[in-house]
Amino acid sequence: MRFGAKAWFWLLLPALLFGCHGGPQPEAHIPGVLISEIGDDIRILDPGLSTDSVTFRVLTNIYEGLTRVGPDGRIVPGIASKIEVSKDKRSYTFFLRNALWSDGVPVVAKDFAFALGRVMDPKAAAQYAYIVTDTVERVDVLGERTLRIILKRPTPYFLWLTAFPAYLPLRQDLLEALGQSYGTSPERTAFNGPFVVTAWKKGSKVVLGKNPRYWDKEAVILKGAEFVVVKDPNTLVQMYDTGALSFIYQVPTVHLPRYAGNPRLKPRPEAVTDYIVFNLHRPDLKPLQNPKVRKALSLVLDRQAYCANVDRQSLPAYGFVPPTISGDGPGRSFRAHFGERFSVFYDPLTRRPYKTSVWFEDRRIEEARALFQEGIKESGQKKLTFSLLIDDTPQARRLGQVLQFFWQKHLGVKVSLDPVTYQTRLARVAMKDYDTANVLWGADYDDPMTFLDLFTTGSPFNDPGFSNPDYDALIKKARRSSDQAERMTLFVRAEKLLMQESPVVPVFYRLSYALVPPYLKGVVFLACGADGPLKWASFQP
Amino acid sequence: MRPARSKVSLQSRGSLWRLFGRVIVMLATLWVVATFTFLGMRLIPGDPFSDPKVTPQVRENLYRKYGLDKPLYKQYVRYLGNLSRLDFGVSYVQLGRSVNDIIAQGFPVSAELGLWALLLALFWGTLLGTLAGLHHEGRIDRYATFLAALGVSVPSFILALFFQHVFAFRLGLFPVAGWEGGIARFLPALTLSILPAATIARLLRASILDVLRQDYIQTARIKGLAHTRLLVHHILRNAALSVLTYLGPMVVNITTGSFVIETIFNVPGLGKHYVQSIYDRDYTLVMGTTVFYAALLIVAMFLVDIAYGLLDPRIRAFGAKER
Fold it and tell me: Edge to edge, what strands does the sheet with A272-278 contain?
C-alpha cells in the first residue's frame, strides 16, 4: 500500500507536468459554424433597449435595419431597396423590399415607425434614446412599404444611423402581446436578419442558425454561429488553442505579447480616445483653470514612449478624434486627411502605419516649464497639487503612475492617484467630485461630431465643465451644415481650439486585436455601432 | 411495536417552543441582512444607470421606470413588501429578467456543481483524515498532512488554471471550459472540492487524535470490540462533530457558486452574480443574491444544530425522545 501510493505519485508527476500535447486539434469544429467568444452574456433580444457592445454584436446578425454597415464601414442595402433624399437633405424616403420576419409576417414600414416611436417615448426609458431624438423629427408611414423620416437638421451620417440597433424594426403585435417579457428568450421575439437565435443558454452561450426567410439568404454562407460566454483571459486563449473557438474577437491584453508578429493577429478598428480631464470648477485649484498650466501638463508627457514601450497596444494621441473615425466619407479617416501637420505612428504589435494629424508635439520640457510658471503666477496660487481619479485596473494604474512620474519630475507637481471602480469613477466624474481624471470616450456613430460635441456648453457629457462661445459656434455651424467639405473645415477649427484651450488632454487611441485564422474570411470589424456582422463570413480551407 | 403516544410529552412541547423561538430569530437575522444590504448598496457611489452614455434626461426616465425616484423609505417599504412575498424584483441590467428567474436559472447549476464537489471532498477528506489520524506520526500521516496543507493554502484560481492546463490543454482529457455533457463537470468540481477536502481531512485528523485519547476507546479496545465497529461507531461518530460544524456553512458555500471557478470554467451558475451585480450596481440582484445566500446559510446552521443532536445526545436541541 505504501509502495503503491508512492509509485503512483512519482509515475504520474512527470506526466502531469510535462505531458505531451495530445489534446484536440486546433482547427477542429463543426463545419460551417463559426464559434467565437463574448465577454459577458447578452442582456436582451430587443434592439431598442440594448446598449452594450456584446448584445450589439449578436443583434447585428439577427436583425436587419433599413441599411446595413458593410466592409470598410460602407453603407450597403438592408430592408430598404431604394432611398430618396430631399434637396435640403432633411427628408429621407425609404422604399422597402419584400422581406419577411422569421415567423413569416412581412416586414412593413410600420415596424420601423413603431420602433422609433417607442425608443423616443420616455416611458420606454431607452438608454440610447438620444441617438434618435437628437436627429429624427418625425416618422411618417406613407404606405405599407414606404417610410419617410424627417430630420431635425441635415445629417450626413444618417444612413449609418439607420443601421444602428436603436433604429431596427420592432413588431408592435409581439411587443404588446408579450409586454415585459419581450425579447427575454428567442421564442419571445421575431428576427429579420441573416441568422435567427435557435438557443440562448443564459450565462453560457447564444446559438444562431441560418434564417431561411432572410431576403438575401443566398449571400449567407455560414450554417450558423455560436457566441460562447468566456470571461477569463486564460480560458479564452486555451479554448482557442484547443479548437473550441473559431477565432478570438478580442485578444485579452495580458496575452497580446504572446501574439506579437503572429500573422493571425489582426488590428480591429476601435474608436476610443483615452484622455485626461481637468475639473475647471474647483475654487481650490485655480491653476487648473488656466489653459497654460493644462497645456504644460500635456507638453511634458512622452506619449510615444508610453505607447511603444509601456502600453504596447495604443497609438499616441495629439488630437481628440481617433484615426478610425471617418471624415468626409467611408474609408476616409478624419485624422489622416484633415489637419495642419501630419505624422506617422506605428502599431507596436503589427507595425501597421497610421497617418495622423497632430496639433502639438510633446516632450517639450523647457517650453512646458516656462508656460507652467507663467500660468501658476497668473492664477495667484504658489503651488499645485492635485489628485488623479483613475480606474482600478492594472492598465489605468500604470498610466496613472507614468503621468505622476512626468508631472513630478518635470514640473514638480505632486499628484496623488485615486483608483476607484468603474462605476464609482463614472459617478464621481458626473458629479464633478474630482480634481483631474483619466477617462475614455468611445464613438456612438462614425463621424467626428460624436467626439467634438462633447465639450459644447451644456452637453451632458461635458466632464470638465468647459464653456467657450467660439467652440459652441463652430459645432453649431457644423451641426447645421450638410456640406461635408465645410463640416470638415469646421471640425478642424474646433479641434484646434479644443487643443489650445486644453480642458481635456488626449493621451492615446486604444488599439484592439482579433485573432483570425487564415481560412476564416469575411468577418467584418467596425469601429463603432453594431460590430462583427457575420453575413459575409465563410470558412475557405 | 411501540404503542402510539397519546399526548405530547412535556419535553417535546418545550422543544416546539424552542423551535418557534429559533424561527423568529432566523427571520430577524434575515431582516437585518436585508436592511443592511439595502442601505449598503445605496451608500456606494454610482447607480445601475451610470453608463458613460446615459444623459441626465434618460437617467430620469430610468429612475421613474424602476421607482428609484421615490424617497428611500418608500423604496425600502416596497422592497420589504416584495421580499415578504418572496419576490426579489426585476434586474436593472439583465433587462426584462426577474431576479427570481436569474436565481432559478443559476442556482441549480451551482448546486449541481457543489454536490459533485461535496461528494469528492467528503470522500477524499474522510479518507485522508482517517488514514492520517489512525497512522499518527507515521509516513501516511506526513503525506496526508502535506497534501492537506497544500489543499488549504493554494488558492482556487491557481488550482483551476493548473488543472485546466494539465488535464484539458496538455492531456486533452476534458474540455477547457463549458457546461455541456457530464465530462465538463469534472474539472470545476475537482477544483471546488480541494479546499473542503483538505479542511475536512485536517479537522478529522485532529479530532480522531483527540478521540483516540479518550478512556472509552481504551475500554472498547480492551473489551475486544471489532476494529471496523470501533472505527465507525466510536471513533468516526464522535470525531465527525467537528467536521459537522464546518460542513453546514461549507455546503451552502459550495452549492451557491464560486465566482472564481465559475468564471474560469464558464459555468453558468450563480457565483458570478454575487460580484458582477455589485460592479453593475444592479441593486435588486445584489439584494436578491445576498438574501438568498443568507437564508440558505441560516437554514443550514439550523440543520447542523439538529444533526448535532442526532450524533451527540448531550447537546440534543429539538425533539429529544426517551428511549
Answer: A314-316, A504-510, A272-278, A436-442, A385-391, A414-420
Across the strands, what pairs with B212? none
Please state, in angstroms and rounded to a whole number, the distance separating the CA atoms of residues A114 and A120. Answer: 10
Query: For chain A, percent helix, then strand, then coil, each to nearest 5?
Result: 35, 25, 40
Å from B68 to nearest chain A CA? 13
In contact, A525 and A73? CB cutoff 8 Å:
no
Domain boundaries, given as residue ranges, for chain B: 1-323
pTM here is: 0.86
- Say if the Cβ atoms of B266 and A430 lie within 8 Å: no
What residues in B contact A181, CB-CB < 8 Å? Answer: 96
Indicate the burial class of A171 (C-beta count within 10 angstroms; 0-12, 13-18, 19 or more).
buried
Measured between beta carbons, the chain A residues lying within 8 angstroms of B104 are none
Alpha carbon distances (Å) from A420 to A254, A417, B44, B46: 21, 10, 11, 11
Distance from CA of A84 to the nearest CA of B (A): 32
In sequence order, what DSSP letters do the residues of A312-368 get, joined into one string? -SEEE-SSSS-TTSBSSSTT-BHHHHSSSEEEEEE-TTT--EEEEEES-----HHHH
Name the residue among B109, B172, B177 with its Cβ closest to that of A24.
B172
Residue B249 Cα, gap to closest chain A Cα (Å): 26
Mutation site, A36, A236, A242, A423, interface B, largest B CB count within 10 A: A423
ipTM greater than cut 0.95: no
* CA B218/CA B213 separation, integer angstroms: 8
- B/e letters for B280-315, b = 16+ CB within 10 Å, e = fewer, are bbbbbbbbbbbbbbbbbbbebebebbebbbeeeeee
3-state secondary structure of A264: coil
Q: Which residue has the cell 430610468?
A: B62
In what order do the strands lie in the sheet containing A33-38?
A33-38, A224-229, A205-210, A195-201
Q: Which of A19, A421, A430 sits opposite B279 (nearest CB)?
A: A421
A contacts of B41 (beta carbons < 8 Å): none
CA distance B270 to chain A (A): 9
What is the spatial distance between Cα B61 and Cα B81, in angstroms, rounded to a whole number? 24
Nearest CA in chain B to A179: B96
Interchain contact, A238 vs B169, CB within 8 Å: yes
In CATH, which superfamily holds the domain spanning B1-323?
MetI-like (1.10.3720.10)
Q: How far apart are CA B323 and CA B307, in angstroms?
A: 18
Give me the DSSP letters along A2-52. Answer: HHHHHHHHHHHHHHHHH----S--TT---TTEEEEEESS----S-GGG--S
Residue of B nearest to A129 (CA): B58
Asked whether B169 and B246 are in contact (CB, 8 A), the reply is no
Tens digit of pLDDT at every position of chain B (323 positions)? 444 444 444 455 677 888 888 899 999 999 999 999 999 988 888 888 877 778 888 888 888 888 899 999 999 999 999 999 999 999 988 888 899 999 999 999 999 999 999 999 999 999 999 999 988 888 999 999 999 999 999 999 999 999 999 999 999 999 999 998 889 999 999 999 999 999 999 999 999 999 888 888 888 888 888 888 888 888 888 888 888 888 888 998 899 888 999 999 999 999 989 888 988 889 999 999 999 999 999 998 888 888 877 777 676 655 545 44
**Which of B54, B165, B268 is opposite residue A204, by nearest beta carbon?**
B268
Name chain A contacts of B96, Cβ cutoff 8 Å: 44, 46, 180-184
Instruction: Kindly report the nearest CA distance between residue A218 and chain B, in angstroms.
Output: 32
Tell which of A50, A134, A231 to mutate to test the B interface (max B CBs under 10 Å): A231
Q: Dihedral sign for Cα B177, B183, B185, B186, please.
A: negative
Report the chain A residue with the minimal C-alpha distance to residue B141: A2
- Check CB contact under 8 Å for B94 and A129: no
